[in-house]
């Protein structure tokens, strides 16, 4: 007699001979909801239709879409698309049933491709950008010379302030800067003291420039003994104070733990945030199980499918062995 794959109890011999689980035991391994008439089995686990397509369904390659494709799937350019999203990169006409040409990783209809060839012939006399290999349409307003090569200025941002560049930008010490910072020799204001950096003794890091003596740990203001430092919210920290800060981050709200702090699962938790992630009951001074890196109370854990509980148990045993071995 065959047993249920979930609860391991005998199946009804008078029922469906092809059934492998009790009807009441069949639930989605992800959302734990009962399976409907349409479900899928993947490596011995059951998935509802929504979760199956979410995990294993083909997704549309359109830049603004990325959703799972439930209906007709269009294959093109080595990717999959919704029928309505596989369109000409120039005029937008749908290409699901039309001929197209691939240019620069985009699909174009035949008429647009002809027009682009004609424009390309006219552009051949214009200077070419060394970065994107395309013609510079308006050299007066778009072109700059960087490291002895002509390029679109729009490919770069000012090294000091990060603003977008145009043809008026300048190259200073091998770096492109805006006209304002070109006058100051390519230097900017120190991110810590807000004073102009006028010396070569400087440090560029974390999206800004520092006086060398200003680039220190935000907490203890000690210079870094090596080039290594740690970043928290855009500021540099030494290893000691970085670990002190990160060690107090709540595992639920990702902010600094406040009030009474609960230590569990190798992390810190605000007392109000240490609860069962299924029934939301507080787990302070209560037994819990780690499931998917989240605490779950014993009551909720016991109603999980047998296969899930077995997986959790195996992970717990492996973690105990790892801790015992000191790995």
From TrEMBL:
Nucleotidyltransferase is among the record's keywords: no
Alphabetized InterPro entries for the sequence: PINCH-1-4-like (IPR017351), Znf_LIM (IPR001781)
One family name in Pfam for this protein: LIM
GO cellular component: cytoplasm
Keywords: LIM domain, Metal-binding, Zinc
Classification via Gene3D superfamilies: Cysteine Rich Protein
GO MF annotation list: metal ion binding
Stored SUPFAM superfamilies: Glucocorticoid receptor-like (DNA-binding domain)
GO biological process assignments: cell-cell adhesion; cell-cell junction organization; positive regulation of integrin-mediated signaling pathway; positive regulation of substrate adhesion-dependent cell spreading
Claim: Magnesium is one of the keywords in the record: no
Domain LIM zinc-binding intervals: 60-119, 188-248
Official protein name in the record: LIM zinc-binding domain-containing protein
